[in-house]
Amino acid sequence: QVPPQPSGGLFGRLMGRKPDAPVMRRTLDDDMLEQLEELLIAADMGVDTALRVTANMAEGRYGRKLSTAEIKALLAAEVTRIMETVAKPMPLYPTKPQVVLVVGVNGSGKTTTIGKLASQFRAAGKTVVIAAGDTFRAAAVEQLQVWGDRAGVPVLTAPEGSDPASLAFDAMTKAQADGADLLMIDTAGRLQNRADLMEELAKIVRVIRKKDPDAPHNTLLVLDATTGQNALRQVEEFQKLADVSGLVMTKLDGTAKGGVLVALADKFGLPIHAIGVGEQIDDLAPFDPEEFAAALTG
Ligand code: GDP
């Protein structure tokens, strides 16, 4: 097993030496490429992406002797190149309110991310309204209220089990009346009831479009980076349920190897707007490709 990132680094085993040993070189041959592929797959990059990355690294360099530092630099450059195409902050539009629909499975970090985003928008001088659209989970609504208090943002709720679309409509009405800059709508994450969830999300979109045909302006999919390759399946599923416009990757502060972000970028090309790096309100950072590549390669 590869040690967890970012403390571990991918390369200890590859070069078969301790990091402080004298510089050693290895020939970039099939054997080494295969080992590299294994490391990248173990780091959650997925087979297709790992193969593409190693092929690009070998291009024009096959048979050369390279030091660990050179291999690391090549890998970091390749990862950076892929990730630069998706590192984009969430686009902001002048429309009031700009509607941000937030989707994702339960436990992915939706509530926390909404709280963090609301706090960032507030700090930037924007007015925000939150709609607690996961009306089936009383605990989720309570949690969102706690985050709303922390961020200093009103959270609109509805009785347990009531129609989320009706809440979204009311929230849209209030946000418009208040002249709020942003309306963030939390949604249910019961992927096991796919048909219900699809209908629920479609209905929310339908009703808010009665108020603004361009809404939602952003549909954020929140993904837990520690779920590895599962994140790829979640993107596929949610793309069928909603018009996903961008991703927030959470829990990148823990033992997540983070390689799944490369697989996601390579496969879907969806922008990564932000990353979650902890449980506190300020623990949301813009996605920085170079920093990410450096942490991944160790
Ligand atoms: P939801 O069910 O999708 O709304 O998920 P929550 O926002 O309730 O988050 C689920 C758990 O993940 C909570 O314990 C959060 O504190 C935790 N969490 C969310 N984002 C992060 C993150 O970026 N880093 C860490 N370490 N934990 C997070």
UniProtKB/TrEMBL annotation:
It is an enzyme of class 3 (hydrolase). Residues 97-298 form the SRP54-type proteins GTP-binding domain. Its EC number is 3.6.5.4. It catalyses: GTP + H2O = GDP + phosphate + H(+). Residues 10-83 form the Signal recognition particle SRP54 helical bundle domain. Residues 96-243 form the AAA+ ATPase domain. Its main location: membrane. One of its GO terms (biological process) is SRP-dependent cotranslational protein targeting to membrane. GO terms for cellular component: cytoplasm; plasma membrane. GTP binds at residues 104-111, 186-190, 250-253. One of its GO terms (molecular function) is GTPase activity. It is found in: Cell inner membrane; Cell membrane; Cytoplasm. Keywords: Cell membrane, Cytoplasm, GTP-binding, Hydrolase, Membrane, Nucleotide-binding, Receptor. It is a peripheral membrane protein. Belongs to the GTP-binding SRP family. FtsY subfamily. Involved in targeting and insertion of nascent membrane proteins into the cytoplasmic membrane. Acts as a receptor for the complex formed by the signal recognition particle (SRP) and the ribosome-nascent chain (RNC). Interaction with SRP-RNC leads to the transfer of the RNC complex to the Sec translocase for insertion into the membrane, the hydrolysis of GTP by both Ffh and FtsY, and the dissociation of the SRP-FtsY complex into the individual components. Part of the signal recognition particle protein translocation system, which is composed of SRP and FtsY. SRP is a ribonucleoprotein composed of Ffh and a 4.5S RNA molecule. This is Signal recognition particle receptor FtsY. It comes from Thalassococcus profundi. The chain holds residues 138 to 435 of 438 of the full protein.
